[in-house]
Amino acid sequence: MEAGDFSLFYMDNFTFYSPTYFVFGKDEEINAGHYVKRFGGSKVLIHFGGGSAQKSGLLDKIRSSLKNEGIRFVELGGVKPNPRDSLVYEGINLCRKENIDFILAVGGGSVIDSAKAIAAGAVYDGDFWDYYEGKTVDKALPIGTVLTISAAGSEGSGDSVITKEKGMFKRATTGEALRPKFSILDPALTQTLPAYQTACGITDILAHLYERYLTNTKDVEVTDRMIEALMLTMIKEGPIAVADSNDYQSRANIMWAGMMAHNNSCGVGRSQDWTSHNIEHELSALYDCAHGAGLAVVMPAVFTYNLKHDVMRFAKVAVRVWGVEMDFEHPEVTALEGINALRRFLKSIGMPGNFAELGAKEEDIDELAHKCCYGDVNTGTTGGFVTLNEDDVKAIYRLML
Amino acid sequence: MEAGDFSLFYMDNFTFYSPTYFVFGKDEEINAGHYVKRFGGSKVLIHFGGGSAQKSGLLDKIRSSLKNEGIRFVELGGVKPNPRDSLVYEGINLCRKENIDFILAVGGGSVIDSAKAIAAGAVYDGDFWDYYEGKTVDKALPIGTVLTISAAGSEGSGDSVITKEKGMFKRATTGEALRPKFSILDPALTQTLPAYQTACGITDILAHLYERYLTNTKDVEVTDRMIEALMLTMIKEGPIAVADSNDYQSRANIMWAGMMAHNNSCGVGRSQDWTSHNIEHELSALYDCAHGAGLAVVMPAVFTYNLKHDVMRFAKVAVRVWGVEMDFEHPEVTALEGINALRRFLKSIGMPGNFAELGAKEEDIDELAHKCCYGDVNTGTTGGFVTLNEDDVKAIYRLML
User: Fold this and answer.
1) Interface pTM, i.e. ipTM
2) CATH number, domain A195-398, options 3.30.365.10, 3.30.310.50, 3.30.420.270, 1.20.1090.10
3) What PROSITE patterns does the database record attribute to this sequence (chains A, B) (predicted)?
4) Which H or E element spans position A181?
C-alpha cells in the first residue's frame, strides 16, 4: 500500500451539506408561493417542460400560489429530456432582461438541471458552459423545485447535466450554490406518468445507488447498508408503482428513496464509480433515448466487465440485495447471479436489454467509446471503480449488442 | 378507520430540513476556527464538560484554531451528563455580559444540549425553561459543535434535553433554530472514551432507531429499511469499537450512523414512539445514571410489554436485523426472540440488564411512573406506539427488576 493510496483503504474525510428544505406529501405544491417568499423570491422564472404540467393543471396551481403571495413571474417552458444548452441561453437572457431573483423548476430532473444551469449562468459574466467544462460554480440565483418524476435526485443535489447541441456532448457540473433552497415532493404528481417513464426513473435511482456501492474504499459498512436499504426499497416498491399508477404508497416510498439515493448521505467518505452514467451519457446524447432506459442496457454490461476487479463486492450486493444464496466455493457465480437478477428485474419493469431495443447502432460504437473517453473534457479514461480506456469501453458497448 | 386516523395508515406529509454543514474525519477539529468564521461568529463561548477535553489537548487545539482566525472567545466548562438548568442560566448570563454571537460546543450530547439551551435563552426575554415546557424555539444564537462521543445525535438535530434541578425533571425541546450551523465529527476523538461510555453511546443510537421503527404508520418501507440498515451497522461495528478503542473504522461507521439515526431522515412521514426515552429520562434524572445505560434496561421491558400491540412489527425487526428465523406458525415467538437478541447484545457490550445493575430501586417505582406520566408538562399518559397510563408504566418498571 502506497502512502497516497490511504484514501482507498479507510473511510475518507469528507464534508456533507444538504441545506434543502424538503416539503413532502399530497397537495403540497399549492404552497409553492409560500416557500418562494420564505426563501426570498420576489420575481420568479417558472421553468418547465412540455405540455403535461399545463394539461394536468399543475402550472395553474403554481401560478395561483405565486399570485396569492403577490409574487410576479415570467415563464419559460420547452425543456426536453436531455436538456439542451440552447434553452439555457434563452433562460439566462430572460432572467437578465426581467431582473429575475428566483427560479422555480416545475418538472423532473431535466427541468431542474436546466434551471440550475440558468441560475448559474444568469449571474456569471462568461459562458455558462465553462461550468460544464470544469469551472467551479460559486454563485447562482436561488432555485426551488416542484418535482414531477422520481429519478434524477436533482431536487436534493447540487448536480446538473446539460447537452451541448454542437457536437452533442453531455456534460455534468456540481456545486453547493446549485442545491435547491426548497423542493416540493408530492408523490401524487408522479401518478400521471406512463409506466415506461416510471420504470426509467426507478432504473436511474438504482443506478445512483450502484455508482456509490461500487467503491474501492474498505470497511464502509454504514454507507453500504444504507445503499442496500434503498436498493431493497426500489426492488419492492418499483414493480408496484409500474403496475398500478394509482398506488400512492409505492410512489411515496420511491420518491423519498430517490432523493436519499442522490443527496450523497449514502455516498460520503468512499470512492464512487459513475462508469455507467458516463457510458450512458453518450447513448442518450446521440440517440436522445431516456437516460434510465440507457442505464438499463449499460449497467449489466459494465458490471459484467468489471466483475473480476472485486468479486466479493458483487457477491455482497447479490446476497444482501438480490437474495442470492452465497456460493462459498464459487463466489464469482454468486456475483454473476446478482447481475442476472438485476437484468431480470429491469426486464420485468419494461426496460430495454440491448442496443437494438434501445435504438442504438453497432456501427456507432467506435464513436461512442471515443467521445466517452476523449470528449471535450476527458482524458482518455473513464470510471472510478476500474480505470477503463477506450478499448475497454468499446468492449463494454459490445456486451450490449 | 376514522377520517382522523388517516395519518396512521399512509405515509404522512412532512417537512425535512437538515442544514448543518458536517465536517467528518481525522484531525478536522483544527479547522473549528475556520468554520466559526464562515458561519459568522466573532465572539465565541466555548462550552465544554469535565477535564477530558482539557487533558486530551482538544481544548488547546480549539483555542489555537480560533486564535488563528482572530476570533475572541470566553469559556464555560463543567457540563455534566444529564445537563442541568443551573449551568444554562450561568451560560445565558455570560453570553449577555460578553456579547457572545456564537456558541461552540466541544463535547458529547450533554454539552451540545446545554449549548442549545444557552443559545435559545441568551436571545429570549423570558425564562429559557419555557422552551422545555412547550414553547416553540423560534430564535437562538448560532452554534457549532466538535463532537467527542457518538450517541445523542444532537450534532445533527434540533433537539435538546435539560434537567431542572428543582424536582429533578428531565425535559426536551426541539426547534429548527437549534440545529447546529456546523458539526465537526472526528472519529479519532472518540478513541479516548472508556469502553463503558462507548457502549452507552451505542445503546443510545440503537434506541433512537427503535423509537422510530415502532410506528403505527403502514407501508413505510423506505424508512423501515434505512432504520434496519443503521441497526445492522451498529450490531456489526459496536462490539468492535467496545473491544478495541484503537479501531478507527468502527468508530467512523458508528459516528456517521449516530448522526443519521437522529437527524430524522429515517423517521419522516411516520408516527414515532419515544416511550423508552420518556421512561428512561426519569431514571437518569433520579439516579444520575448514564442515559444509554438506562435505555439498556428500559428498552427490552418496554418492547416486551408492547409486543402484543403489533407482533409482526417486532417479528420484522427480529428477522431482518437480528437474523432470527421466522416462525410462521408462531410469529410471537419470533418477535420475542428479537427482544432476547437485543438483550444479549446489550449484555455483550457491558450494559446493565436490570434495576439492581443500574442502581435503581424498586421502592421508587410509584414515584418514577407518576413523574413520567404526570411530570410538569405531561397529562397522564406516555408513548407514541402504545398509549400507556401510570399503571402500564409501573408494570414496565417492574419488568426491569
Assistant:
1) 0.94
2) 1.20.1090.10
3) ADH_IRON_1 (PS00913)
4) none
